[in-house]
Amino acid sequence: QLQASGGGSVQAGDSLRLSCAASSRTVSNNGMGWFRQAPGKEREFVAAISWNGGGILYADSVKDRFTISRAYAASTMYLQMSGLTPEDTAVYYCATTRSASSSRSRSNYVHWGQGTEVTVSS
User: Fold this and answer.
1) pLDDT of the chain, 122 residues: tens digit per residue
2) Which residue stretches of 7-101 are H helix?
3) CA distance 36 to 77
4) What backbone torsions phi and psi does residue 115 show, to the nearest 5 degrees?
């Protein structure tokens, strides 16, 4: 099971750090990623990281503003978000891939957290 947290309501330009805690250390062998879903829109890829902390991928819309990382000892993944804009408003979901690799494709993710809401006001 995955538990996402850290969302909230902020102003444009602010920063937030999202966390995704896994209940099992088995996720240490899997890639992990963040997706988001804005109201009325499809769930979209945000960032991903492979099992060993490499293979980092970002969506073009967040590159240079967001940083993904993971802490193996705590079986936790993070998403540091800076320079937030109203376009970043969404529910953010974390997930694990079916392999050790990172991926941009939703179809490669097998376990999903419940989501944490981020609201950015202008």
Assistant:
1) 899 999 999 999 999 999 999 887 667 789 999 999 999 999 999 999 999 899 999 999 999 999 999 987 668 999 999 999 999 999 999 999 999 999 999 999 999 999 999 999 99
2) none
3) 15
4) 95, 150
> Could you tell me the two tokens for 99?
């392999």
- Name the nearest CA neighbour of 30 among 62, 67, 72: 72
- Report the C-alpha gap between 46 and 44 in whole angstroms: 6
The DSSP code for 98 is S
User: Closest by alpha carbon to 112, among 37, 20, 49?
Assistant: 20
Cβ-based neighbours of 29, under 8 Å, separated by 6 or more: 51, 100
Q: Residue 57: what residue type? A: L
